[in-house]
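Deliverable D5.2: sample structural annotation.
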Amino acid sequence: AVSVCDLTKYPPELPCVNEFYDTRCTYDPKTRRFFICCAARNQIWPGKPAGGFDILGRPYFAFAISKTEDPRDGFRIWFWKDNKRIADWPNIAVNGDNFVVTHHTEQSGKPLAYIFSVAAMLQGKSSLPHWTYNASDLGGDETTLTPVTHFGDTGGLTYLVRRLASKFQIFAFHGSPADTATPPKLVATSV
């Protein structure tokens, strides 16, 4: 187990995790590092949502960056435990100083995208500068976002896309959480 839960307390201290799953990995040629992200949960689901121990079945996510370009040298690892009950199947991308995590299915009222500072990850900071984007930042729609893997100069923009009916929405932002605590407004277009 990654963390210990005291089941005599309610609500128990979070997170209670005994399984990592839906693992994703990518290599960033700019930083020459491997990035990994996976969902994390406790399998003691009580059998009925909103039950007395529902909070224990909530999934979270963990992510890591290799210490060097050789993954055998180990990883710096973070465990995201903001009690937001993330969805399964994380998607990841790295662009410049942004490590982007989104999730495959919508979760009403929960962030659609998490952006973490790659520079802070490389330094092994325990508290990472980060931003989140919610449905309210995207016109109120909670449809899943997918981060775009970039293979060239983007002019400092990081892109997210999603499909709505017969159109694709493309969102972009400039900068990094290392630059400012306030996320920039997303620019958007549809094709």
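Annotation notes: The first strand starts at residue 19 and ends at 28. The chain has a mean pLDDT of 83.
The annotation will be released with the project's public dataset once the embargo ends.
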